[in-house]
Amino acid sequence: MSFESLGLSAPVLQAVAEKGYTTPTLIQEKAIPICLMGRDVLGCAQTGTGKTASFVLPMIDILSEGRAKARMPRSLILEPTRELAAQVAENFEIYGKYHKLNMALLIGGVSFPDQERALERGADVLIATPGRLLDHFERGGILLNDVKILVIDEADRMLDMGFIPDVERIVATLPPLRQTLFFSATMPPEIKRLADRFLSNPKEVTVSAPASASKNIVQGLAVVPEEDKREALRALIKEQDIKNAIVFCNRKKDVAILQGSLKKHGFNAGALHGDMSQPARMETLEKFKQGEIQILVASDVAARGLDIVAMSHVFNFDVPFSPEDYVHRIGRTGRAGLTGHSFTLASPDEGGLVEAIEKLIGTEIPRVEVPGIQTVAFEASDGRRRGRGRGRSSSSSGTRSRSSSSSSRPPREPRPDVEVRPEREARPEREARPEREARPPREPRAERPPRQPRPEREPRPEREVRPEREARPEREARPPRERRPERSDRPRQDRRDRDDTPAPMGLGDHVPAFLARPTR
Questions:
Q1: Where exactly does CATH 3.40.50.300 map onto the chain?
Q2: Residues 6 or more apart from 269 whose CB is under 8 A from it?
Q3: pTM of the prediction?
Q4: How far apart, in whole angstroms, are the C-alpha atoms of residue 308 and residue 290?
Q5: pLDDT digits (tens, 9 = 90+) for 408-464
Q6: Residue-wise pLDDT tens digits, 452-461
Q7: d(CA 90, CA 290)
Q8: How confident is the model at residue 262 (pLDDT cuts 50, 70, 90)?
Q9: What pLDDT is stored for residue 399 in this prediction?
Q10: Of 27, 147, 161, 461, which sits 20 to 30 A from 326 (CA to CA)?
Q11: 276-299 burial by CB neighbour count: b if 16+ within 10 A, else e?
């Protein structure tokens, strides 16, 4: 089947042909006609099957008629990461170059004024991450009343990153009469319930088993000691014919450490993780796409949706904690029908994680040997999920083994060179003390004589009545005193008038005497 049979317009077909695509993938073949009919779509397909073009191409034709108003976009595409949002915007520019559609990209790390100007011009297509879209909405810079098409891409990744509450809040502000396109690489029960809430009588499109690895990827697993992983990675890179490759780490701090180690040994390596600024992330990703960087050391921020042309290899420096992440990581290679290679380095204590991955993909990952590195076996698992870290010692496990084995050890025998001290003789028993003589009984106390009553007091004599005092003669009126001059009229008595010595600064008139003494 060709793209002409899907019902796309001539300008879109011309743009697709110029891109070099002639045959649609299975997800494109099934989803594009349904999208053009205006029905809701629930699409589930493994990574690298072309899900982005399955909704970008029909949206261009649907939005070709009409124009958007200021701050009122006509369609909305939600992406979990900035890189995915930027990649979808790039696809709209490629496939929609023969249509006059305005597009706005709302992602973090970009100034608000530039994004506000794009919204003021009117956006036919709005591509955004949930957090930045809510920032504009709360500021009153955008209205979602005119959205006719909603696309939720990589829904399972949004669930992992905790964006589902933001997505629910955004969907609640949209008009109920709309077309919703829901795409995900996996379909866990939580995503299924979410799709039932957002979609209305959807057409389900599933083209592959959920979380299955592509058959175009040659996989390999090497079990090496933790301290030999860097050397094993360098040996694999030298042995393979690498055009470009991504090396995945579980932690962002390990990305910078591993990138520095590769550059120190002469490899052309770059780093990409979530703590980098948005301009630095975009610049690094663009250099990798253009071939200026051969090896990209990245966290899981690069595990979803990134489409790098003809990527040859993917290396898992750490076994991912989630089995689904393994499928998404190795899905960066082996795309568009090409053959890719993936290698995973596992330490002996990661047998449980590898077992979960093999159970998910339904096949055993072939074991490989690294030249110059001793291959070891997985340790026996106790069913617990252990966190891993650089330089993690086994002191805790050794302590447990020592404590558990100490109870089963036999008692130690005395050393032959140590003299055995003779046992001490038993002390003789003390003679029993003689019993004390009984004390004679005390004599009874003599009875006290009764108290005699106190004699009655004589009554006090009555006080004599004092004669009344004679009235004092009235004093003669004193002449009125002269009025004192006002305070402002009196000369101020300053310390300098009483003493010629200068007063210390800052104390005013309250100066101790010892400070006012003149110095010699």
A1: 3-206, 217-383
A2: 247, 259, 262, 263, 293, 294, 295, 296, 297
A3: 0.60
A4: 10
A5: 444 455 454 545 555 565 565 565 565 666 676 776 666 676 777 776 676 676 666
A6: 777 667 667 6
A7: 15
A8: very high
A9: 39
A10: 27
A11: beeeebbebbeebbeeebbbbbbb
Is 83 within 8 Å of 281 (Cβ atoms)? yes
- What CATH homologous superfamily does 3-206 map to? P-loop containing nucleotide triphosphate hydrolases (3.40.50.300)
Conformation bin of residue 362: beta by default, left when phi > 0, alpha when psi is -120 to 50 = left
Q: What's 415-479 look like in SS3? A: CCCCCCCCCCCCCCCCCCCCCCCCCCCCCCCCCCCCCCCCCCCCCCCCCCCCCCCCCCCCCCCCC
Of 426, 236, 256, 423, nearest to 341 (Cα)?
236
Q: How far apart are CA 490 and CA 211, in angstroms?
A: 102
Residue 266 Rama label (left phi>0; alpha psi -120 to 50; beta): left
Contact 85, 30 (CB under 8 A): no
Q: What is the C-alpha to C-alpha distance for residues 254 and 41, in angstroms, rounded to an integer?
A: 39
Residues 6+ apart with CB under 8 A from 375: 222, 223, 224, 367, 369
Using alpha carbons, list the distances in angstroms from residue 299 to 39, 186, 294, 303, 318: 36, 20, 16, 8, 10
* Helix, coil or strand: residue 69: strand
Distance CA 222, CA 346 (A): 6
Who has greater pLDDT, 501 or 268?
Answer: 268
Element (H, E) at 205: strand 203-206
Strand ranges in 291-391 using DSSP code E only, listed in sequence order = 295-298, 313-316, 340-346
Token pair for residue 59?
């949206």
pLDDT of residue 426: 57
Cβ atoms < 10 Å from Cβ of 19: 12
**Third-level CATH fold of 217-383:** Rossmann fold (3.40.50)
- One-letter amino acid of 152: I
Q: Return the structure tokens found at 221.
A: 């697993």
Q: What is the pLDDT of residue 385?
A: 43
- The answer to whether 150 and 178 are in contact (CB under 8 A) is yes
Q: Which of 76, 373, 40, 3 is nearest to 197 (CA)?
A: 40
How many Cβ atoms are within 10 Å of 7's Cβ, its own excluded?
Answer: 13
DSSP-H helix ranges across 265-394:
278-290, 323-330, 351-361
Phi and psi of 5, rounded to 5°?
-80, 0
**What is the DSSP pairing of strand 103-106 with strand 179-184?**
unpaired
